[in-house]
Amino acid sequence: CPACGRGDIYEKILEVKVKCAACNQPLKDNDVGDGHVFFAMIISGVIVTTLALITEIYFMIPLWLHVIIWFPVTIGLSIFILKIAKSWLIGLQYRHNVGGFGDKK
Predict the structure, then answer these.
(1) 2 and 90 in contact (C-beta within 8 Å)?
(2) What is the pLDDT of residue 105?
(3) Beta-bridge partners for 10
(4) What is the pLDDT along the chain (105 residues), one digit of tens a residue?
(5) In a 3-state reduction of DSSP, which class is residue 50?
C-alpha cells in the first residue's frame, strides 16, 4: 500500500484491491493507464532476446526448443515486471496526489 506500506494492493495477479486492508486507503479509483505495460514490454523484451541470443550462440539449440523455453519465460517475466511497474506507478500517483488519489485530498 502506498499510504501505509503494510497492506497488499493486489487481489489477483494484476487486479488492484478496492481498499487497503491495513489502513482503508481507497486504491481502486487510481488509473495508471498503460505506462506499466510499456516498461514491461521493453524490459522483458530486452532480457529475453539477450538470453535467447546467448543461448543460441553457445548451445545452437533447434528453433522448436527456443519456443518451448522462451515462451513461458517471457510470460512469467512480463507478469513479474508488470506487477513491479504498476506498483511503482501507483506509488508515484499517491506521492504526487494525482490520479484517483488527488481527487480525495
Answers:
(1) yes
(2) 47
(3) 16
(4) 898 999 889 998 889 999 998 898 888 877 788 889 998 999 999 999 999 999 999 999 999 999 999 999 999 999 999 999 999 999 988 888 887 776 554
(5) helix
Residues in the chain: 105
What b-and-e string marks burial along 31-57, b requiring 16 or more CB atoms within 10 Å of the CB? ebeeebeebbeebbeeebeeebeeeee
DSSP for 57-88, please give it: HHH---HHHHHHHHHHHHHHHHHHHHHHHHHH
Among candidate residues 22, 3, 8, 24, the one with its CA nearest the CA of residue 83: 8
Residues 57 and 62: their CA atoms lie apart, in Å, by 12
